[in-house]
Amino acid sequence: MEFEDQVPFVVRLEAEDRQVLFENGTRLAFPVRQVLLREHEPTAHVLVLLTGWTKVTSAAANGYEALLALRGAGDLVGEGAVLSGRPRGATVTALSQVEALAVEAEVFRRLLIERPDLARKLMALTADRMRAGDRRRVQYAALSVQERLARLLLELTRGPREEGSPGDPRGNLQGDPEDGVPLTPALTQSELAGSVGASREAVARLLKGLRERGVVRTGRRGLVVVRPDVLRKMVRESDG
């Protein structure tokens, strides 16, 4: 999963556009694992995430759940359905306690008309997300499950950004090298599997091997990467 181009929507906005957007939203709170938006349901609003982490997923008919993206503070979710007028195309679930602003669909569409720069920034966000998705598909087509998992774990140790105010840019997650770096956000084995396009059992076997080699360990806050150098070697070998 690539995070490098995912500059949060709120960070992209000029101060005046950001203020207008916030003034037209209603603050909501969601506990861990609560669904914020549900796939196939009618569209009523977009959400601007203020704090916390969410996962964006889509379920197949056989019950397999693919992890499409991770979204955190400053990100916008639900905008695609609002713009198209179609039902939700994915489910958004809280991975931690989440605060968000809900902007009604009609209000959001009106703001895009009244504030052209806001619309341009949304178009740029959409293009970046599409490009990231295309790049991920090309990369993963040539990789084994182990190589995909190594790449994902490295991306998660870098942290899309630390949690904070919605205006904070994404930064690198810092950790004590001797203690290892906890993944942010912490994902279950099923969620990791959904992200790399593999079964939970396959990912569990790979994680067990990495634990036995001292590359990762299970900590109080979830999975901790102890030897990112080993993961980087796996990625370099797959790239070379």
Describe the structure.
The protein has 240 residues and is an alpha+beta fold. 42% of the residues lie in helices and 22% in strands. The protein is built from nine helices and eleven strands. The chain has helices at 9-12, 15-23, 79-84, 105-114, 116-141, 145-158, 189-196, 200-212, 228-239, and strands spanning 26-30, 35-37, 45-51, 53-59, 65-72, 76-77, 91-94, 98-104, 181-182, 216-219, 222-225. The protein has a four-stranded antiparallel β-sheet. Strands 2-7-4-5 form a four-stranded antiparallel β-sheet, covered by helices on one side. A three-stranded antiparallel β-sheet has the order 9-11-10. Strand 4 and strand 5 (65-72) form a beta hairpin. Helix 4 crosses helix 5, helix 6 crosses helix 7 and helix 6 (145-158) packs across helix 9. The longest helix is centred in the middle third of the chain and has 26 residues, at 116-141. It is elongated. The two termini are 19 Å apart. The relative contact order is 0.16.
Helix content: 40-55%
Q: Give the helix/strand class.
A: alpha+beta
The Cα radius of gyration reads: 18 Å
* Low-pLDDT ranges: 160-176
What is the rounded distance between the termini?
A: 19 Å
Give a count of the beta strands, DSSP E runs of length 2 or more: 11
**Secondary-structure element string:** HHEEEEEEHEEHHHEHHEEH
Q: Order of strands side by side in the largest beta sheet? A: 1-8-3-6
Write the layout of secondary structure elements.
Layout: H1 9-12, H2 15-23, E1 26-30, E2 35-37, E3 45-51, E4 53-59, E5 65-72, E6 76-77, H3 79-84, E7 91-94, E8 98-104, H4 105-114, H5 116-141, H6 145-158, E9 181-182, H7 189-196, H8 200-212, E10 216-219, E11 222-225, H9 228-239
Antiparallel strand pairs: 1-8, 2-7, 3-6, 3-8, 4-5, 4-7, 9-11, 10-11
Helix pairs in contact: 4-5, 6-7, 6-9, 7-8
